[in-house]
Q: What sequence folds into this?
């Protein structure tokens, strides 16, 4: 970690942003997750919200219970403790994917773009263990990195008006699963029948920042048995 990092910047009258590094990596992601967990434990009711991102953590606090200087001191103390020990934060999860032209309308175009076969694209996508770098733009939407540069591809020039729940996409060197039907501009290569967001459960999201994700190809029959809906990834352009 740079000697200038972490860096704490005021983000509002009751919030600060803690910057951990200049670019995302597995260690940074783990350190952010560890810091968020420890701050939540150490400050309890004094914290209103903790929002992790690729290289930073937004800390929103209750000004009636803690002031800026105290929160700053607490953050540095937690980061110092976390960075001096091995980081083991994060669970590992394997998610099933039905890779096909039926559920991945951009699969052929991505293969053509990368000069690979469809089977090669699918194989490469499964080989990587991805780190959850950030959560958003919708509840349960996890930004996973980094995709092998062999299958990297820019976002669509014109986003689709509708992308179905469970659709798996690639954008540059990131991959993600759409947790609900929404507009989107990622290149769709398949679909996952596993729910990424369940608002009535705790935790409501299947993964969190710092977690590890692997994908495993399944057949069309397995996809349907697990609750997948065939022909659901042909979104409107």
A:
């Amino acid at each position: 970690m740079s000697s200038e990092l972490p860096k704490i910047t005021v983000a509002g009258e009751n919030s600060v942003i803690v910057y951990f590094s200049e670019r995302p990596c597995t260690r940074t992601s783990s350190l952010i997750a560890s810091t968020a967990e420890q701050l939540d434990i150490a400050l309890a009711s004094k914290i209103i919200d903790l929002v992790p991102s690729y290289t930073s953590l937004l800390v929103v606090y209750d000004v009636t219970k803690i002031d800026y200087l105290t929160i700053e001191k607490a953050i540095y103390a937690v980061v110092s403790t976390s960075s001096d020990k091995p980081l083991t934060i994060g669970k590992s999860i394997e998610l099933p994917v039905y890779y096909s032209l039926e559920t991945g309308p951009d699969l052929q175009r991505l293969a053509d773009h990368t000069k690979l076969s469809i089977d090669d694209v699918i194989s490469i996508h499964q080989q990587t263990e991805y780190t959850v770098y950030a959560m958003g733009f919708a509840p349960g939407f996890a930004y996973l990195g980094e995709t092998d540069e062999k299958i990297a591809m820019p976002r669509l020039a014109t986003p689709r008006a509708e992308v179905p729940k469970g659709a798996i996409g690639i954008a540059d060197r990131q991959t993600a699963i759409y947790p609900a039907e929404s507009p989107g501009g990622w290149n769709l290569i398949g679909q996952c029948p596993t729910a990424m967001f369940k608002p009535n459960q705790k935790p409501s999201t299947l993964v969190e920042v710092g977690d590890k994700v692997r994908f495993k190809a399944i057949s069309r029959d397995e996809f349907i048995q697990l609750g997948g809906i065939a022909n659901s990834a042909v979104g409107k352009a």
